[in-house]
Each structure stands twice: as C-alpha cells, then as structure tokens.
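Hi there,

I know you've been waiting on this one. I reran it after we fixed the sequence typo, so this is the corrected version. Both the input and the resulting structure follow.
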Amino acid sequence: MVATVDTGCALRALRRLAGALAIAAVTAAAAAGTASAAQLRAGPSNLAGVFAGAGAGDTIVLSSGDYGVFRGAMKPGEVTLTPAPGEQVTMRLLFRPAANITIDGMRLESIEIADSRSKAITVRNSDVTGQTTLRTGELQDAGILLDRNVHRDWNACANCPEGRIWLPENTDRPSGITISNSEFRGGMSDGIQNGSNGTRIVDNTFHDLVPGTPDGVHTDAIQLYGSKNTLIKGNHFYRVPTAIMAPDGADHEIIEDNAIAADDRGYPFAVTLFSDDGSIIRHNTFADGACAFNLRCGILRIGSKSSCRWAEECDPGRGTVVRDNILGEISHDGGSAAIAENSHNLFTRRASGDQALRGRPSFVGGPAPADHAGYALAAGSIGTGSASDGLDRGIRPRSGAAAGPGPGARGGAGAGVTVRALSRLRSIARTGRLRLRIVTRASGRGRVSAAIRPGRALRAHRRGHSRRTVALRSVSLGRRAAGARTVTLRVGRTTRRRLQRSTDAGLTVTVRVGGRQERRRLTIRR
C-alpha cells in the first residue's frame, strides 16, 4: 500500500504550530521585559549615563543634590526618576523633546516641555517653585499629567508671562494636558494662564495668591486667554483676588463643580466670561459674602468689555449655558446676548431665569466650609434634589467624594458625615470589594450600609443591560465612630458581572451613628 499525505492538513498543522511558537515567544519576551525592570541608583555626577542606559519600567533612585538642567530623552517605555527616601533632589526640567518619563517627588525650579514629539510625561508629588511652560502650540495629544504638585510663591518677573503654569497657544488638536489634585499658593502671579485647546484643570486648590498692582501683574487663579474646550472642574478657590477670568473671549469652555469662597479682599465676580462662544457653566457654588468695591461676592459676569481695541472685544457672545449653580447674581455687561440658557440656578440675591430659586443655602461644612466637599448642600437646605438632573444645585462632589444628602435623607442633624469612595468601578468588578472612607463628627455605635445601581451600559452590552439596584450587606463602624474609618463592603458575583458591563454606577450610602442617620449619594466611574 502506498502512503498518501494530505498536504492541506499538514500545512494547517504547521501554521498552528508556528502561531503557537510566536505567541510563546511574545509571552516570554513580555515576561523578560517585566523581569528586567530594575531599580537603578544615580547622583548628580552620573545621572546622564544611568538615564541613557535605563529601559522601560526602570526606576532611577536619586541621591540628594542639585542636578541642574535635566533634558530627558525619547524613551520607548516609562522611566521613573524619584529621590531615595529622605533625600532632597533639585532640578530644572527642559524637555525638547522627551517621552515616557515620570518625575516623582522633586523640587523643581522650572519646567519647560515643548516639541510635538514630546509624549507621556508625568510630573507628580513635586514642589514647583518656578514657572512651568507647556508649549501648547507644539504639544498635541501629548499625554502630559501634572498631578499632586505644589506650585508656590512664584512672582511673575517683568518680562515673564504671568502664569506659574503657562500654556500660551492652541492648535486644532487637544493638548492632551491634565493639571490635577495640585495646590497653587502664595506669590504674585496667575495660577494658570491658559491659551490652549482641551486642557483639563481638575480637582485643584488655589489659595492665598498675592493681589497684583494696577500697572503690573493682574493676579487670577485661572486666566483664559485665547483658549478653547478647557475643562475647569472640581477646583476650590479661597483667598484669591480673582478665581476664573476670561476678559478677552472664551470658546466652548466647561466650568463645573467649582467652589469659590467669599473674600472681603477679593473681586466680587467669581467668574468673568466676556465675548463667550458656547461655554457651559453648571453645578458651581459661588459663596455669598462681602467683597471689594462694596459689592457682594458670588457674581457671574457675562457680556463684553465696555471699551474695545477691536470689534471682537465688544461682541457680547452667544450660546452660553448657565445651569444648576448656586450664585449671588448674574451681571450682564455689554448686553445679554450671550445667555442661551439660564435655568435651575439658586440665587442668594437677584434671581433670574427658568426654575430659579432665591434663598440662602446650608452647606455640610457650615457657613464657611474649609474644603471643597464642605460646599455640598446639607440635608434640608434649599436647592437639594432640584437641579435639572435631579441632583442638588451647586457643586457635585469631586470624583469619588460624597454628594450632599439626596431626597429622602432624614435625621443626622449635626452628624457631619463625609463619604468618599476609594474604589473605582473597574476595581470593584474585578475584586468584589468596595472600599469607603467614612468621616463623622458624632460618637456612638455606628453602621454603614449601601445600595449600588449599575449605570449606563458599555457599548458592547447595550441590550439586556440590567440597572436594578442591589443592596449590599452592612458593616459595623464600631462603638466609637467619631473620626475617620475605612470600611470594605462586599459585592456579589452577579452584581460584579453587571458592573463589568457598566460605564458608571450610582451608590447610596447610609451611615447610622449614635441613633442618627445620614445618606450620601455618589457616582463611581470606571
């Protein structure tokens, strides 16, 4: 008998074997790359050589010293530079270009990032004493993150731009820059002077900025100057001359969830938005109080300049949306053509617009809240549950923080409960654990319960997506609950699968302490 070979089957088998070998090779290479990530040591004299030899995933641990100008390089994967424990490192960053670099925990005398090739740069946990310049005419979709830094005590020099973070130009593409969780304090200079496209300014604190002089620096916490598509969200402003200033035009900015405190030294106009085109101002809280010029604080100023160098400066604007805020009043300069929608706002003085309320709100942090979360409305306050989206008017909490008590909250007067979610939705779905940070002023036996409701479905799971609310098993806070506690609630398998299919989830947390009860509503995102 003559043996025959099915060449088609043989070729298919060879292809399968080759594919398996290729997958094994890739897996081995990835494992080798992970295994090769190293912790390297460097000092001022040899950093350049150590950095040149560092690979993706490596961390360079620095000894104390002044490293002068660090120029970085184009790295194929992330390289982190951080001081050794207890060491103090000073440097100046000049990235033109640089990529895939993380700077963590330095004292930075200046920062400049330029060149369209610069990508994936993070500066975090650092003390920035000089000016940060981000050349946004060149940076597009750059993936630059400035996070948890302190920008302090910088005075604009005679020939310097006024912002301690300066973003001077824009292009048709978003900058890809996020400035978050940072503190801006001291110094006679703007906190951020922004002329870019699509920059995100999120969850920062601006305070104790030094007022400028009539013929010199005009200190603003944030100045928009030729910018567009900026997101200004969740920031807290107090003891600043001016919070958000756009005197020369604005273009589709989003200003939301910001808390601006009253200051008897400060400008009465919490936000000035002249010659605006289509911006949205929503869910902000502009506190009432005595301000400069014998005016009350908390004014939203819309319109245009009264005297103009060119016609565009006198354009009152168009398409501005003002919704769901707490504020003193709206001031119209140069006409009111800018306002396309004025609705569901709570005014402490002159009310206007659809579904307007007038009255004095009560905040969970008392009459003069110390932080952003304190500006959430207290239970029973005017404005609770009556915003256009069914939430409270004024700020929604920062991502993962507690909202003000929603409709149906009862008891708990004076309990002073704050709730913050420490888990993201993706983590809850993966681990089945929801971690909460509970802070309460009351003492006594306490207990925490919660109910979670999956939100919008991911695109792949639009059909048959269940949004049924599920109660989670309660946990004890112990006998003495005053102060801060972290608790973990368990989430069952079925709910975890539903959360895996969701873009967000609503969470209602009920805290019972010493016979009192308060309820907080949060939104958790992926």
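Quick highlight: The first strand starts at residue 39 and ends at 42.

Best,
R. S.
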